[in-house]
Amino acid sequence: MHHIETNPANATKEEKYQSLLPQLKGLISGEDDLIANLANISSALKETFGFFWVGFYLVKEDQLVLGPFQGTVACTRIKFGKGVCGTAWKEKQTIVVPNVDEFPGHIACSSASKSEIVVPILHREEAVGVLDIDSDSLNDFDSTDQYYLKKVVELIAFPG
Ligand code: SME
Predict the structure, then answer these.
(1) In ligand 1, which atom is closest to the CA atom of 55?
(2) Of the residues 51, 79, 102, 132, which should be mutated to test ligand 1's pocket, given the most ligand atoms within 8 Å of the CB?
(3) Tens digit of pLDDT for each residue in 132-159?
(4) CA distances for 92 relative to 4, 23, 34, angstroms
(5) What is the pTM of this model?
(6) Which of 29, 67, 69, 74 makes an SS bond possible with 56, Cβ 3.0 to 4.6 Å?
(7) Residue 26's domain spans which residues?
(8) Atom 1 of ligand 1, nearest CA residue
(9) Is residue 42 in a domain?
(10) How many structural domains comprise the chain?
(11) Selection from 77, 69, 67, 80 nearest residue 127 by Cα
């Protein structure tokens, strides 16, 4: 598969996730390279939803380091427990931030980012990275994103 199918203009967010998930599964099933798969997942999410920024940070020793992403240039390293990403890593929990200005310690890579969701990627019960999505609108993420993005990260196979 070389493209993501477009949705009807009136498709709901849930319908878009439901059509995207099996396509992502197909897209990454024939490839075992982690970086290639994270790159395509970032692209597919950005293309489907038009999010401002979509990308991955991967745990390397005691920091999160920027991985494949789609969007503007971003911070390269985040410490354990810092910002939304470092907090999701520490707590191994998805964090939905309706207004980034109200999240203590939020790391602003871009002033255009207004709301954010960060989903930890778990491998053998350890957090090995996070999926970070930023929106340029307030309140852009809800339990539907939380539910389906967890399924998206569960598709990712980590080596080791
Ligand atoms: N805002 C994130 C940092 C990463 S950028 O949004 C791409 C945070 O607070 O962890």
Answers:
(1) 7
(2) 132
(3) 999 999 999 999 999 999 999 999 988 8
(4) 30, 26, 20
(5) 0.96
(6) 67
(7) 13-154
(8) 107
(9) yes
(10) 1
(11) 80
